[in-house]
Amino acid sequence: MEKSTVKTDQLSKQRDLANFSQDDAGHPMTTDQGVKINNDANSLKGGSRGATLLEDFILREKITHFDHERIPERIVHARGSGAHGYFELYEDLSTLTRASFLTDTSQKVPIFVRFSTVAGSKGSADLARDIRGFAVKFYTNEGVFDLVGNNTPVFFIQDAMKFPDLIHSVKPEPDNEIPQAASAHDTFYDFVSLATETLHNHMWAMSDRAIPRSLRMMEGFGIHTFRLINDAGKAHFVRFHWKPELGVHSVTWDEALKVNGADPDFHRRDLWDAIESGNFPSWELGIQIIPEEDEHKFDFDLLDATKLIPEEMVPVKIVGKMTLDRNPDNFFAETEQVAFHPGHIVPGIDFTNDPLLQGRLFSYTDTQLSRLGGPNFHELPINRSVAPVHNNQRDAQMRTTINKGKVAYHPNSMAGGCPFLSKIADGGFSSYEERIDGNKVRARSASFSDHFSQPALLYRSLSNWEKEHLIGAYTFELGKCTIDPIKSRMLYLLDQIDHNLAQRVAEGIGLPVPSEIEGPINRNVGADEDVEAQQPGKAKIYLEKSPTLSQETSTAYPIATRQIAVLVDNGFDMDGFGKMQAALLAEKAIVKLIAPKGGVITCSKGMEHKVDAALPTTESVLFDAVYIPCGKESIDSLAKQGKVFKFINEAVKHCKALAFEGRAKELFEKSAAKDFRDDKAILLDDEPQKFIAAIAQHRNWDREPKTMHIAV
Ligand code: HDE
């Protein structure tokens, strides 16, 4: 018998979803019971000015449904954006795993991805400083596999027991429900400063990774060590990575704050628009493979989710690619109702004893029970497997499958033994046979107690501009805290990671770096445990730097989908603009005309052009670069608008590419740009190709230290 009776192609899931999709075009409006509706404007009344009648079943049905439209938002990762796509495998990995989607290169596996922030509510703004969720559902021919990861390679805590504490500390404080989608408050730092295992991922959260330019421009990580198991039953440890085709890029903190006001849906819109315009984002899947024999060869424990395996120690092997090519039809039905679970695995993949992963295996089903209302959430269209589902699970709220026959048990003779069990060779799942030899203990392994070496490695690996951003982030966050002993404890801990880092943050918040603190550094220890054994110890250096942890790169990335603001008014020079526009469009950049007023403007050639956004309705922070063509009338008009200078000055401050042509030099001279005549990304009468090259670098961070004086 074959392992699986189905093969997936790119459209397998779309065909399945089509069975549940509905288009109202050409149909009469009906009640939920299918009765055609004649009047949807008025309720049934005793006289046209009289009281409404209880018998109005149409009104009651409509209002009742409305009253119950909301479901509980996710306890974490409530704010999210989803997309459909597919996964292609580059090479057969059967030496490592028997999972069909990792061995059969002829299949395209449908996937659904949901990106999210962690702390904020469903309606919070996209550019909160936060870790991003990166959850991928593979609808494989052997069942659903979920890779439920984040955009940082490590997590805050080591043991699932602490997850509610971590989340309670970062969520809005319970007395006044403040602050929304922000970690910069006392309770979070109280917890972080007492549980030193948090410091590594906390540094990632203070880094630029926590304020991405786009969901399309961030890495994804499965974080935990999993196992791959081949046909012979041999296992390898594995860590999963997603590498974005567009590179890893971020905005500045000042931009993030402003974007949250100017367009709280910035990331959601960016993802949606890119897919709608056919610019399909993609990521390559990478794996780090560690032979089981090498489990104890590292200076850290592979089961510790607060540790990454530097790529310089174990390279990431690229094995496939995921492309997102379709937006959901309905946010609620798909993005809201999708239910991920790290316990959704297929034959050829298995867990390890990572105590964080083990706890997650319980949590994700449990949370769906209250969020989606019962154990049948796997029947929701977005969650259904494309591999056939047959078992003896029955009933419960909102069951949609109509199971035929009398038999709902196994073994049975009345149904001929069906559904029957599958041998391992036929694709039956069997758990990896791991030898267990130990006492039942409520304890943490001493091998988890090094909490400083990896944040120190991360700090050493960052470029200077990334370090500056990091220092700024710590200073901002601690500056928002109100309790000095908490801030001092944080400074002491930063000092264990890097003295200069601690010193700079201390200067910023106006407190000294303490040379010692009272009591144990790490208080996340059981009452009867050996406290000393749980203390982090001094940072060790087992690798000087891990360059792959930095976002700095000299590589130029495609400028496709980058947003270019063109500041213009009537009379702008069509020759210069036409040349620039053609060059930008050839690279698939998005060119938008921004003018003092909306409507239509006329260029130097007398042609009419539709204004994409009026200045009062948009902001510099929503764009990647600014271009101002020549034209006397246009420049004279722009020079009268204060907002034009705010627009330019912010772009300068945020280290973006700017191009001024001809008389636009007058705006250059009157704006902050004038102080940057030699800047490689501020161009005066230069070729479009130079502008494109500057945008492709993302930002000219060399400019940043010289922009402190710019008031925006
Ligand atoms: Fe989650 N996490 N988590 N988490 N997580 C949830 O499940 C939980 C952890 C992650 O877009 C919840 O369906 C526990 C690590 C993502 O729908 C909940 C622990 C990583 C998403 C839950 C962790 C994640 C969630 C809330 C510690 C990265 C969003 C709603 C033991 C590897 C998935 C839901 C989506 C969602 C529990 C730790 C990633 C409550 C108990 C580590 C991307 O079950």
TrEMBL record:
Residues annotated for heme binding in this entry: 74, 114, 163, 360, 364, 371
The cellular component terms of Gene Ontology attached to this UniProt record, alphabetical and capped at eight, are: cytosol
Keywords in UniProt for this one? Heme, Hydrogen peroxide, Iron, Metal-binding, Oxidoreductase, Peroxidase
Q: Which PROSITE patterns match?
A: CATALASE_1, CATALASE_2, CATALASE_3
**Compositional bias ranges of the Basic and acidic residues kind:** 1-16
Top-level class of the enzyme under EC nomenclature: oxidoreductase
Q: Which part of the chain holds the cross-link 3'-histidyl-3-tyrosine (His-Tyr)?
A: 341-364
Catalysed reaction, written as an equation: 2 H2O2 = O2 + 2 H2O
**One example GO MF annotation:** catalase activity
Protein name according to UniProt: Catalase
